[in-house]
């Protein structure tokens, strides 16, 4: 294809935006043959900083970058979007209750869902990064009735990549030799990184999982609480690794997951694995790539008792969040 792909990035002036835009413009997200046109969507206070980032993008002279425009109105920002990365969100402020957080984000993701419904391209693919990512994705999808639900996704790829890295380190193998890990549930501390089906340099992940103390007191909490550990060490939340995960997610969705492997993504549940239909939960997924590519849940995995409990607990949290945003009239 020589026709540029329209990529809208919200929160473009934020720290993830700064790490993300250059990767997209260089071709790392959609491949080396696909030109991109960037649409940056910010709130009015973020527009000037976004203009600065756009100047730097110009100064990279990326051969694949066909143009950049900047908007503070969602109807303009999502016009013709083929790929939409919803990064900007309202962070939890001091003393803010969960209901306040969900309501504040509803004020962002409801109008963005409506705008996507009205003006995005027919093939739009949406990735929600801004937290609480799963429920923000649910709000956006629910307010875009004409867009198939499977076009809306929430990012758990950073959790997935964190889990790959932890397993590789534990097993003493290169990270490229770890396959078929799964993040289940919510992108929150309740998430469940599952290595029972993994292939760790040719050995079953269940072997590593036999060390229950390591599994439950080290691996699972290290992955689930990695975001907090980064904030503690860096004095700022994950940015480059989050941007990298967003690039990976869209890359694999559009171009396909590697043969013999899968990845993790928050998707609209179709009821698979006992996860109630109509919540945005993370599953093991593959994509065949190409036009009209969808995330397909990996079928027929055997879920043991330990995994079942952990998945159910994270899913219960998602159901609570769904009920809360339903109560607020956001979905
Ligand atoms: P920043 O605060 O650096 O940037 C956010 C940007 O979004 C700001 O420039 C702000 O002006 C803009 N913004 C706010 N409301 C907007 C709206 N309605 N329309 C357009 N832009 C808007 O945050 P950053 O560190 O970039 O993080 C962005 C989001 O990613 C946060 O919600 C964060 O919690 C979330 N994360 C999600 C991760 C995941 O794995 N799903 C991991 C990393 C990150 O924590």
TrEMBL record:
It is an enzyme of class 1 (oxidoreductase). Transmembrane segments: none annotated. Residues 6-146 form the Lactate/malate dehydrogenase N-terminal domain. The active site is at 187 (proton acceptor). The keyword Oxidoreductase applies. The keyword Transmembrane does not apply. Substrate binds at residues 92, 98, 131, 162. Keywords: NAD, Oxidoreductase, Tricarboxylic acid cycle. It catalyses: (S)-malate + NAD(+) = oxaloacetate + NADH + H(+). Its EC number is 1.1.1.37. Residues 156-322 form the Lactate/malate dehydrogenase C-terminal domain. NAD(+) binds at residues 11-17, 105, 112, 129-131. Catalyzes the reversible oxidation of malate to oxaloacetate. Belongs to the LDH/MDH superfamily. MDH type 2 family. This is Malate dehydrogenase. It comes from Paraoerskovia sediminicola. The gene is mdh.
